[in-house]
Amino acid sequence: MKKENYSKFTLIFTSLFFVILSAGCNSEEKKQALITEEKNKALEKYISNFSKEQLLSQLFLINIEGNRKFIPVEKTGEIYGQKNEGNWLLSGGCLLFKYNLGNTAEDVRSFTDSIRQFYSDAGDIPPFVAVDQEGGYVSRLRGLTENLPSQKKVAETFSLEEAESLYERQARQIKNLGINVNLAPVVEVETSGNASFLDTRSFGSLNKVIDYGKAEILAFENNGIGTVLKHFPGNSNTDPHTGLPEIRVTEEEAENILVAPFRKLLPYSSALLMSHARVEITGGHSKTEPACLSEFWIKHVVRGDLGFEGVVFSDDIFMAALEKNGYPPQTACIKAFESGIDVLMVSEKRYADILKVLIFQSENSPEFNDILNESVRRVIKFKEKLGLLEYVQVDEEKSSGKSKIPSFILTVKKQESVTK
């Protein structure tokens, strides 16, 4: 074969190969898109089985009573002025503080099992169970898991491989307690403007935050524990439990200090927690409201610029940073969801009064109702990722060209037994 003919043949063959390959890829992409569509239909069918009170309760992370057996404290009648009437009001997530934790790992597991059993008996959506286990002095599980040093100490004394091993062991131990969400790590860069507040809670410099933060996130996520990165976009030296943090930065500092660690680490994490800080970017965005109530920070930056599609949590809406600055809980809850929050953290054990406000607003604003429904879907997908729910393929298949597309139902997943 002549050289020029051989070259033509090679060019034609190569072009044909890439056309076939591209067609195959497009076909597979189309199939995956159709499977996703079927799973979305299954999700919609699943949530259609629940009342409005049950669905909007998915948007709350609530502290609970007890440490031996789950004890609910409110019924749906509370929403409508009918005390002790209706079904039990059960939040989408349960937040454990130290007083919720027994003396042994077995005590804790028995308690978390009782939570899920109560929800199951009530025919409700299974909850996620969350805890603050950052390390150092923010270690709710001290004595129940192996000692977890502060993030600062880990970054100073552990290699990345050692840190990854530490966090993997911690994740497995947490999972055995029946806990599946850790409100950690803190991925804020330490600066002079936040050092006294964060103390040992930061890994330190930007590079350390990114490297050690990634090691921790992957160790937890790969072992069945959802991570919640915090606190975006940052904090000052004012404790939000007592006052309103104020941050003032240049546009360059906003990107390279506040946003940069979250830009790098959010793709690996399940969720994000917003801070109460009010941020002013000189020559750019002016401070108006706290970040957890800010459309700019949530819709424009988190959802838009960073492209994050996971669950966005507020920090505790009962903190003084909000309550003492014109945002009592009933006002803050509306503003939070309008700004893009998916889950409200409430350190109190009762939330019927806040849920009542959401129900009233949703019934009088189709746009607000749509916002809440989208957040419910995100939470349900979050729970599927955590292994609380699962898509089960059913026998029926639908034809799509030459492909058979499976149908699914979304259902509660049987929980794994404790690993010895």
Can you walk me through this structure?
- The mean pLDDT is 91.
- Helix 7 packs parallel to helix 8, helix 11 packs across helix 12 and helix 12 crosses helix 13.
- The protein contains 13 helices and 14 strands.
- With 420 residues, it is an alpha/beta fold.
Feature tags:
13 helices, 14 strands, alpha/beta, 420 residues, 8-stranded parallel beta barrel, two-stranded antiparallel ribbon, 17% strand
Biggest beta sheet summary: 8 strands, parallel, barrel
In spatial order, strands of the major sheet run: 1-2-3-6-7-9-11-12
Q: What is the CA-CA span between the terminal residues?
A: 69 Å
Q: Uncertain regions: pLDDT < 50 for 5+ in a row?
A: none
- Average pLDDT: 91
Shape descriptor: globular
Helix content estimate: 40-55%
| Cα radius of gyration in angstroms | 24 Å
Number of strands: 14
Structural class: alpha/beta
Order of helices and strands: HHEEHEEEHHEHHEEHEEHEHHEHHEE
Strand content: 15-25%
Number of helices: 13
Question: Any chance you could write out the topology, listing elements then pairs?
Answer:
Blueprint: H1 3-47, H2 52-57, E1 60-63, E2 93-96, H3 105-121, E3 128-131, E4 133-135, E5 138-139, H4 151-157, H5 160-176, E6 181-182, H6 195-198, H7 206-221, E7 226-232, E8 246-250, H8 251-265, E9 271-274, E10 278-282, H9 295-305, E11 311-316, H10 320-323, H11 329-339, E12 343-346, H12 352-364, H13 366-386, E13 389-400, E14 403-412
Parallel strand pairs: 1-2, 1-12, 2-3, 3-6, 6-7, 7-9, 8-10, 9-11, 11-12
Antiparallel strand pairs: 4-5, 13-14
